[in-house]
Amino acid sequence: MQASSTSSSSASAVFQGVWIPLVTPFTAHGVDGGALRRLVRHYAAAGVDGLVVCGSTGEAAALDDAEQLAVLDAVLAEAGRLPVVMGLAGNHQGHVLQRLAAFGTRPLAGVLAPAPYYVRPGQQGALAYFQTLADASRVPLVLYDIPYRTGAVLDTDTLLALAGHANIVAVKDCGGSLDKTVALIAHGGLRVMAGEDLHALSTLCLGGSGMIAAAAHIRPDLFVAMDRAARAQQLEPARRLFHALAPVIRLVFAEPNPGPLKAWLARQGLLSDVLRAPMPRASAALAEQLAMAVAALDRQFPAQALAA
Predict the structure, then answer these.
(1) Structural domain includes residue 49
(2) Annotated catalytic residue, options 144, 148, 180, 262
(3) Which of 43, 129, 148, 172 is labelled catalytic?
(4) Residue 178 within a domain
(5) Can you give the pTM of this predicted structure?
(6) 172 noted as active-site residue
């Protein structure tokens, strides 16, 4: 089912700015729905442009199908007009299509789909897989190019071919190739969202449309300010914000994501520091380093002063 070019253009316009791939709060017994809804309200108030549910930061692989839908519905109930994208990872195409059909009954801005992991289908297999998903989807497809998680490299030519599908509108770019990023932006067929947080400003300056940034869980207002400054061609303040954020970004990914994020969010009282095995909690040493780095960031850019 391909969308018209007009509806495709309208759908792609939403994929810009700062999107947060939400963590999934847990208790010892299950998903913490109250904490999840609190997070949505917190980030909506911070001015982010969209939310991604059940991505890798959301520990989607540790959630069964029913839990994933429950998480999605809780987020949608709080998101209001804030656009929401649902993660869709898997390597059993029939099962993926079943889940896609269920997601299509929700008011989503799109689904975020990586290549089928582990099976390494090659370029033709990956092309056919994404085209099948895009044909079947009731909502736009966002490609997730992340070879270090899937084991499947998506060549530039493959991504450009997929850009010709009317229902494929954007890419979360974790491909690890500046040449590929430049080619995708220059082509213009897909909105290019930085998926590596340290590449966010460079992607914006090259003409990318935004970022899906896990580290934006911390001081989302500064990520939004950096994005807005870059769009306004105010490069000096954008650079100043980026360099202030960079130490925090590095620490967020110094141990397996989302362990460091959950440690910091727990210190803020937003959730419990609970992850599902085999994902480990952040070490106490890293949690302390991250807290100190955020405190230094807060001293440089106090939240109240920024809002004023």
Answers:
(1) yes
(2) 144
(3) 172
(4) yes
(5) 0.94
(6) yes
Q: Is residue 102 part of a domain?
A: yes
The reply to whether 57 sits in an annotated binding site is yes
229-244 residue pLDDT tens: 999 999 999 999 999 9
Q: Please give the tally of structural domains in the chain.
A: 1
- Tell me: pLDDT of 6 over 50: no
Quick one: tokens of 124? Answer: 């033709």
Percent of the chain with pLDDT over 70: 95
Catalytic annotation present for 144: yes
Q: Name 201's Cβ contacts closer than 8 Å, sequence gap at least 6.
A: 226, 230, 238, 239, 242
pLDDT of residue 303: 83
- Can you give the residue range of the structural domain that contains 64? 8-230
CA dihedral 171, 173, 174, 176 (to 10 degrees): 130
Q: What is the CATH number of the domain that holds 195?
A: 3.20.20.70
Look up residue 53 and give its DSSP letter.
E
pLDDT tens digits, 44-92: 999 999 999 999 999 999 999 999 999 999 999 999 999 999 999 999 9
Within a domain: 214: yes
- Has 27 been labeled as part of a binding site? no
User: Where do the H-state alpha helices sit in 104-258?
Assistant: 122-136, 147-150, 156-162, 178-187, 200-206, 220-231, 235-252
